[in-house]
C-alpha cells in the first residue's frame, strides 16, 4: 500500500509533529508513507502546486493521497489518478474569526465533500458539520512511550525552572488568536499569588516536540483557554503525563476529561477559570488520566483504523 501525505509547513516546523507522527505510526504497521510538504511560496502559485501534486502521483504511482487540512485536500482534489482521503484538523472546519476565511473555507470544503473518497475528522462536533456519509471520527493518536509521567523536579531542572513555584503552563503559541492567551492572562492576574507563575511554552517560536513532555511534567496545571479546538493534542498529551488540566469547553475536552479528578472544564469567564486553576493547584498531585485514554488513543491503534479506511476505499 503506497500513500502520499500532502500537507504544509507550520510555524517552527518543516511539518507538523502530529502529522509526522501519524505517518511514522503507519509505517510501523507496513504502510508505505511519503510526504509532500507544500511551502508557502508554492501555495501562492496554485496551478504550479497542483501540477507538482499530479506529477508526484503519476511518477510514484501512489494508490491514495491523504491530505491534512482542507486547503491541501482542495489542492489534491484536482487529480484523478489516486483515491483521496482528507483529514480535517479543526480550524479548517470549525471556522475562523475573519469573514474572508469563512467564505474561502466554505468554497474549499464544498469541493472536498464532493471529491474526497473518504473524510477523517477529530470530533463528533466536526462530523456534524460534514454533509456526507463517507466520514469517520478518528482523533490524533498519542505516542505513550514518549508522553509519560516524569519527576517534576527533574523536569524543571532540565528546563531550568524554579523548583519552588507553582507553575501554570500555557502550552500554545501566544500569538494565535484562537488559543486565547488574553483570557489566560486575565484569569492568572485574578489569582494574585507571587508563588504562582504563568509559564508560556511557545512565546514567539515553536519548541522542539521532544521537549514538550518536560514542560507538561514540570507544571502543576496545564491551562487551555482556546476559543475552539478540534481534538486538542496538548490535552491528550497532558493526560498521558497525568498532569492536572484546566480547559474551556471546546472540542472533545468534556468527552476526554469526563469526571477525572484534578481536571476541570470552565466557561470563558476569567473568574471561573481562576477558581478552576486554584482547584487544580489544590489537587496537588498527579491525576490518573493516562489510564482513561491509553487503551483507545495509542498511535498504533489510530494507525490501524486509518489503514482500515485505506483498504476499504482501495477495494
Which sequence of strands runs across the widest sheet?
Answer: 2-1-3-4-5-6
Q: How many structural domains can be distinguished in the coordinates?
A: 2
Output the helix-strand order: EHEHHEHEHHEHEHEHEHEHEHEHHH
Radius of gyration of CA atoms, rounded to a whole number:
20 Å
> What's the tally of helices?
15
Query: Which percent range describes the beta-strand content?
Result: 15-25%
**Biggest sheet architecture:** 6 strands, parallel
CATH architectural category of the largest domain: 3-Layer(aba) Sandwich
Q: CATH-wise, what's the superfamily of the largest domain?
A: Glycogen Phosphorylase B
Q: What is the CATH top level name of the largest domain?
A: Alpha Beta
Roughly what is the average pLDDT, rounded to an integer? Answer: 90
Poorly predicted runs of 5 or more residues: none
DSSP strand count = 11
| Helical fraction | 40-55%
Distance between the termini: 12 Å
**Shape by Cα distribution:** elongated
**CATH topology of the largest domain, which one?**
Rossmann fold
> By helix and strand content, what is the structural category?
alpha/beta
Keywords summarizing the entry:
Rossmann fold, 2 domains, alpha/beta, elongated, 315 residues, 18% strand, six-stranded parallel sheet
How would you concisely characterize the structure shown here?
This protein has 2 domains: 2-141 and 298-314, Rossmann fold (3-Layer(aba) Sandwich), CATH 3.40.50.2000; 152-293, 3-Layer(aba) Sandwich (Rossmann fold), CATH 3.40.50.2000. The protein is 43% helix and 18% strand.
